[in-house]
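hey so i finally got around to running the thing on that chain from the lab meeting. sorry it took forever, my laptop kept dying and i had to restart like 3 times. anyway pasting the input first so we r on the same page abt which one it is
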Amino acid sequence: MSTTAVAPLTTEDAELLVATARRAAEDAGVTVSVTVLDAGGHLLAFRRDDRAVLISGETSTRKAYTALQLNAPTADLVDAVQPGGLFHTLPTALDRPLLFIAGGLPVHRDGRLIGAIGVGGGAPEQDHGFATAAVQALA
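ok and heres what got predicted. didnt touch it at all, straight out
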C-alpha cells in the first residue's frame, strides 16, 4: 500500500488565511476575529481586533473547530443539529463545544483535510464569505 504525502497547513498558509479574511472584512466595513487550526486542532494563527465584539474570538475558534471536526462548512450543518436532525446530540458528545453558525470552513489540500478557518464578528453570511475568500486565496 502506498501513501501520498500531503503538505500540511503551515504558519505561512495560516497567516495568509487570516490576512485575506481580515482584508475582506475590512473592505466590507466589518471587524472580525479569525482563527486557523491545523489538522490536529492546534492553533496556528489567531487575530482579534479590539474593536470586535469580545465573544467573536471564542466564536471564530469554535467555528473553526466545528468545521475541522465534521470536515464540513458550519453553514451546511445548521439543520443537522435541530431537533430530529442528524447531529442533534453531537454538541454535548464532544469535549469541546461546537458552533453551528456560518463562518467555519475546513481547509483541504490535494483532497485531504489539513485544517480549518473560523471567522466571527459579522453576520453569519458575511463571516462565511470572508472565510470563503480566505480559503480561495490559499488554493
